[in-house]
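Trying the structure run again after the queue cleared.
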Amino acid sequence: MIRGLYTAASGMLALQRRQETLANNIANINTPGYKEDEGVLRAFPEQLIARIRDKEGISVNGYPVLGGQPVMIGRLHTGVYMPEALPNFRQGDIEQTDNPYDVALLDNIPPRVEPDGKQTERRLFFSVARLADPDNQPVANPEEIRYTRNGQWQVNAKGYLVTSDGYYVLDSNNSAIRVNDPQDPEASVGQKLKISETGELLAPVPNEPDGTYQSLGAGQTRLGLKVVTDPNQLVREGNNLYRWAGQQGQDQPANAADDPQLNGFYGVKQGWVERSNVNATQAMTDMMTVVRAYEANQRVISTLDGTLEKAANEIGRVTG
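Done. Tokens:
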């Protein structure tokens, strides 16, 4: 009976975490590039229950044995728990904004086939970093780099492309991307910035007719589009950012442009933004299912509590 209390209580705790995960998904349904979390429920190890000291059952010389072994009652499930919530990196719908600083990723990169036949998922991300002084130290260190699918950017006072949280958008060399120069307005690109379908950064050629473009800046030729092999190695940090937490020797995030085999499997759309991949209808349905399961566990605890009360207050009571 006490085991039943622990089993029901563990179910309620796991369902509470599951409900919090679903609520967070719904709260971010309008967050660009957000990837929904999926709660993973696991069962505690099963226990094999056997009868002991039972003289009324099948027994030999008063002991409940059968073939020299205790008589088995069956398996006992001791509850569930939710150890983690894994992001679902499925491609979200894209929405047109016509803002030149909005960029959406189109990701159809096939999984990598391992020698043993196992398929490892690969996903594409923008690379960003929090830089203290991009003018003097524009290149981000590997431990400073974060990854995101949020391509809704803006230009800060220093002329750099940044996210809404102030992270600098990086190019393929892990350098901050500067589109405006406050000291030289004529060299500023502003909203004339062009980003090709492969992520090339282009600026209009000075004193040339409209439509003539060249690479932006010195060496800043391409967005820092990173391919992450096995995105489950990414750790969500908040602000729609991920940190790579793979072990030494594992595949680190690499520039998509460096792998010619990926050509045609990904693209960039300027003036568009990727929406959250949360399915609102499914999330609401899952929340109602969780509530019903939570209520069922509550009823189990209430029933067991009533039984324990009777056992303590009524059984063995002296009457008369």
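The CA atoms of residues 15 and 290 lie 6 Å apart. Worth checking whether this holds up in the mutant runs.
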